[in-house]
Amino acid sequence: xxxxxxxxxxxxxxxxxxxxxxxxxxxxxxxxxxxxxxxxxxxxxxxxxxxxxxxxxxxxxxxxxxxxxxxxxxxxxxxxxxxxxxxxxxxxxxxxxxxxxxxxxxxxxxxxxxxxxxxxxxxxxxxxxxxxxxxxxxxxxxxxxxxxxxxx
Length: 152
Description:
Structural class: alpha+beta
Number of helices: 5
Distance between the termini: 27 Å
Strand content: 25-35%
Order of helices and strands: EHHEEEHEHEHE
Shape: globular
Number of strands: 7
Helix content: 25-40%
């Protein structure tokens, strides 16, 4: 079951994101950051009241720009369409808010291509660079993520 994240989900979301970060799949996030951005998150439950097995966030950057980020699905639940459902929920919410440019920074380019995103140069996303990337220890010389965008 797909739903918006709740306050009671934050510690599980924190654990999942930082476990994924430990594998080099994404950057870690603090509890403070997650509480402050909780409304960005969707979670996917194994059953109607089961444990969270996946998550993804849609973060607004500017009047015409949103980011899909922190996509994670537990290993045993991958390749079942959960990641696609999570990303599509984020895209749908962005469209509802009239955000017509949606991007991600990712290592999973084939997955995002299958949803319709296209590779772009990171420099075409100055809002992201100056708000988030600038604070990242990988920036600017070691960033190995690929920027992808969907223009609606």
